[in-house]
What does this fold into?
Amino acid sequence: MNNTTPTSAERAEKLQGMGCKRKRVEDVRFVQGKGNYVDDLKLPGMLYGDFTRSPHAHARVKKIDTTKATAVPGVVAVITAETLKTVNLAWMPTLAGDVQMVLADGKVLFQNQEVAFVIAEDRYTAADAAELVEVEYEALPCNVDPLKAMAASAPVIREDVKDKKEGAHGPRKHYNHVFNWQAGDKAKTDAAFAKADVTIKEMIVYPRVHPCPLETCQCVASFDKIKGELTLWGTFQAPHVIRTVGSLISKIPEHKIHVIAPDIGGGFGNKVGAYPGYICAIVASIVTGRPVKWVEDRIENLSTTAFARDFYMETEIAATKDGKVTGLRCYTIADHGAFDACANATKWPAGLFSIISGSYDFPAAHVSVDGVYTNKAPGGVAYRCSFRVTEAAYAIERAMDIMAQKLKMDPAEFRLKNLIRREQFPYTSAFGWVYDSGDYQTALTKAMETVGYKKLREEQKKRQEAFKRGETRELMGIGVAFFTEIVGAGPSRNCDILGIAMFDSAEIRIHPTGTGICRLGTKSQGQGHETTYAQIIATELGLPADNIMVEEGNTDTAPYGLGTYGSRSTPVSGAATAMACRKIKAKAQMIAAYMLEVHDDDLEWDVDRFRVKGNPERFKTMTELAWAAYHEVPPGMEPGLEAINYYDPPNFTYPFGAYICVMDVDVDTGASKVRRFYALDDCGTRINPMVIEGQIHGGLTEAFGIAMGQEIHYDDEGNVTTASLMDYFLPTAVETPKWETDWTTTPSPHHPIGAKGVGESPNVGGVPCFSNAVNDAFAFLGSTNIPMPHDNWRIWTAADKLGLHQ
It folds into this structure.
């Protein structure tokens, strides 16, 4: 062999395919301030919209007077619910099968609800005029406590459905009841508890939080009256879903709606659904014949757009006296706010909450979830998780610690004893989920050995003894969490939204010169899709990643897809990309066989080329085959080299991880300091280790924010008290701990490239790990469950209740 001939390994390295720490190509424009966001868009004659919002959490709207607002110079129009009724748009469907007011129709149901939409020549005039809309309210009793929502004396939230005995998800048992959903075997679970040696029962609350993306929700609507076509630019995580919903609401034919999602400054589930601002901007453009922009401010974003969590989970575990779990039971009250606008698959009104058995071999389990209406903003999105998986992981991981405490077992050893074993995979849980693959004991053992777990426990014991002697006022907590996530929504037998199966898509076109473009139904909000999808193609087709353009977010050019959320991009659209590549490769192989005058089966693939078996000097590279596809195809074959794939996964994927947090807590100030945080993730095949690490850093930072300070809090009158970043904790570089990341690799056996997804995992595992660390610090004093968020005040209060300030 000629010494100058590159080896297979050298050629593979130049492709920058899967496994390569390829730099993010998106960052070239982002770091130079050249990103293209919705608010950068300026169209000729563009108008601006702003809302008049309710100061009340619950009130009748007696009268709306727009006289003063319309008199302001520069105001073009003011839209109210009465305006929208003339075009049958006063209410809109939600993704959860409910309906929601676009503008207040007779009542307001939560503070800052949209009442009127002012359209003006500039943003400032619109905002000023919105303040001049005069609304006469009749205040009504309100309720923001989901545990009181179904009381006999609770105020009626939704008068439009109060007499309905059936909802979108079955029977309703109270006028504020949304649904009841159950999973598992209740009789078998009750029997396991009846004969259990040891049981625990704890109310575990995951408070209401908010995704709080840096860029708020916004859109620009432009209706062309001549063509009858609507173009809508917006912060959409699922552009095709917005197009379909927009068509259903507006009655504009779907082929005449063009939805474009440019660069998005973070989504985290907040930008999946449709908001009144989108509908009002569309109506305003139709009415005025001019483009209309709507951009919400931070207070509006935090107080009115889709929240997350707000689950009250009464969790029980049954076990033998030697620490083997035998049963799991959970009853949950889920606060859905004023409208059920959750972004869940139709079949799962409580999302994938039945993953609550986690990573443990529970022989019996049952869950029951009641959704209720309250005077809070609607939503219930998967804030950096997959459809209520974070709530489930938090419940089981806190409960496992509480049971370990009761059994007087080390929480890590208790987990090791109950983790699903490697030889049990594929494993069917007590809820019927089929976990694809895993090696849990190896992961947790590696985590414990890496952090020196035994020595940390010895140090903690010494600290506790010193505390009892009065030599220190600082406690040490060691948080352990082992999570399994269910992602990759999803298999059509399990998942749909509005009746559309949750497949996803990829369309790949290879040009004659060997470069190409890949268009997808997903939409990046910072995940690095332009980088990683190209790496999949590079490995599959043997073309350099730098020669592949990745395009998302334009419904005119992208194949239909369900968007990006719930860590579904790689498990679903990444699979579609690989499968489309394989269609292209199969055609290229036939072209190569024709050119080399051999049978297809006489060829083998080698990194970037097809070569003749036993005669590797005879080959055709993929670049050569791309050129040949346009002028030298076999007789009867169509020219060109492109393919499309709609991938309906056979199963979800199940990434997992082992996290350990070491924390010091000052009982006199409530201040906490994370000394060390170790995160081991297993996401199957690793496409880009650098991007994975960035995703984990971001997810852990959000988990830190949630566990240690975030809460959308309401007072008894329904006022939102944390609706700005003065009050809602968003970690900065000052507060954020240093992250230590690690991995194991257990490929998914059913995924074309073995990938499982990772973007949501650090949030799923991070939150209970932080919480367990705080609770572990106080456990030796008899404390079992200090609720989140663990800010200084709440930790100080917990210490005070334990009598530590006397």
